[in-house]
What does this fold into?
Amino acid sequence: MLQKFKKILDKVLHIFIYVIFLCLFFTFLYTRLNSNYLQTVTFFVIPLKHRALAIIGDISILLVLFSFILLFRNKLIRIILMNLILILLIVYLFLNFGVSKYATTIFPFYDHKIENASDFYINAGKHAGGGYFLEYKFHLLIIYIILFNLYSITYLVLKKKFFKEVKTNKNKSNFSIKFFKRFLISLSLFTGGLTGSFLTFWNYNTYLKQTVQVESSNQTLMMQMTGKLNYILYTSYDPFIKNNQKLDVLKDKQFISKYSRLGNNSKNILGNDKKNLDANSEIYKIKDSIKNIIYVQFESTNHLFSSKDNIFTNTDYLPYLRSLLKESYVLDNFYSNAGVGNSADGTLTVSTGLIPTGNRVSSKELKRTKSEIQFSLPRLLTDFNNYIFEPNNLEFYHYNHFFENSLGYQNRYYFTDNKKYKDDNKFNVFNFKEIKNLDGTNIIKPTLNLFNTDVINDQILPSLIYNIITNNKDVNKKEKNFFHLNLCLPHAPFNYYKNKVEIKNNNINKLSTEGRNYLNAAIDFDNVIKEFIKLGNKLKDTMFVFYSDHPHTGLNKNDLEIYYNKKLTWLEYVKLRQKILAFIYIPDKNNNTNSDIPKGILKGVNNNIRSHIDIYATMLELFAKNKPYHYFGTNIFTDEKTYNLDPRNMLLITDDFSILGNSVYSSKDEIMYQINNENIDLNYVLDKYNSIKQDKIIKDKYFMQNKLNELFSFNN
It folds into this structure.
């Protein structure tokens, strides 16, 4: 009787090894991975049955893996194999869904392969790829392995001592029978796992056919409906790529030309009247006097910092930014068009008016297709010298092709300590030994040690620009200049910044650590603003276009509610999280050249929806002599009603309505939407939403195949 009990207990304890393995793995898969690495993606709200199928899909893949483990009789070998699976799966998932966005997208490496091993680290920033893993999640992996092996080793010890009297028949016949049983069990697990995996993918593919197929939505939906492990298995099969990449140039051109700013249609894609710049407007009167256009692309700066009602109202927090906003034309309802390419996508959109695909890094795709976009601002602003500054290594985000070839910037300043570029003393900021501040009194260090590595010091950029404008002796130099600056601050992770915000507000201690650190990081950003104010006071006839590349999407709902002093619905939270800082500053010619107090000649607030593509349209209309290509968007100085589209999740925001979810469902009961205009209904909203999605599908196809110039050409 005791022998039988020991045998049963042995089996139960052995089975529990697999239970612990599954618990640890799914804890990582559905908690840590979601909260830390997929926070930049807004998932679709899907029915419970589909979420259950996704879990089944992930379990199915694990069953396939277990089917091979069970072929081995030795318990120690099984435990070793499970350790390997646990380590490899967690590391692989981390690379796929977390770090790989720096090289390709948040989706798998093999979607668009990295050219070589070092290229990953170059594109991830110096040591960033390995650094993030070591800093944030490596300890979790160790904990998981310790927990798993504590039980496994305990079981092996108990088995050797307590269960040593459990005898088994070791003759060949018995061995063959037991192996055959294990083989049948393994075969059953393998077959069942593949069947479950296929059924979840079939469910997704069937559902996809009922919707307008926007690629970025498709892949997010696939991951949600099939499971993360299943997604990795099936991602190489993409119905969008296989079935929807055929080009019909004439038909597609007719579709987009209806809504082009150059088209004959007086309505935009929403059916609202197109508004042109009034010749009597302030900006129109001064546009011809502008000699310098300076794009200043902030890093991860949410609308929070320009909001009039927030946690730091009536405090001295960010004094330079707030003084500058009072002297500027503020776009108070401005949203990001960036996809997972983040900074690269922001740069692309303000330079070309294109909305990125959403799930692919634009600079990587443009390099892959060797694209040269002929309607980029550097190519169309023919009266302007053009310069671009970046805080990163030369090859970061594949910028080595992106800026010069794709966008056409002729003078590119960068920072790199790569030995390959050590002799580039003209454009490599790393080699600049003495950079004085704008007062000429102190030398500013060209680099900062941040994130445990060296990055360019944003505070030197105003000095560099001033030197270029005042000291350029090139005989071929044009009278006007167009600068594009990509700032580094305030870049995540925010726990590296040493400043501490002291705000007298009872709710500040209720912020998450991330929410509090974000406020701390912005202090360094404000010190950079101070230098730009000084630059504006020294220059004449200059327009600053300040905007953020993308929001910091890691802020949770509670943080935003505390920031803005109000409760938010889920849709309000998603919208507000996408809202970013943007304003135009044109300094007064009579400003004190040694002052850090701003005074502007163009002030005001535009509360209409605006986004990155509207900056491009505005610069084109103000400063381009010729417009040989269709362009879209809205002039930021008009009151035309337009829209913003978040390409990651197809969140559509307009002045009259907002909608999230219809790229998945055809059922009206499952759509998350908000209507602000009593004269429109849901049918109207869905009609406009589908038109905008169709417009994006067309442009995405041409983007992926290097055919944009052909599609956008106005003269043929």
Residues 35-41, 99-132, 662-667 have pLDDT under 50 and may be disordered. The first helix runs from residue 2 to 37. The chain has two domains: 2-243, 286-638.
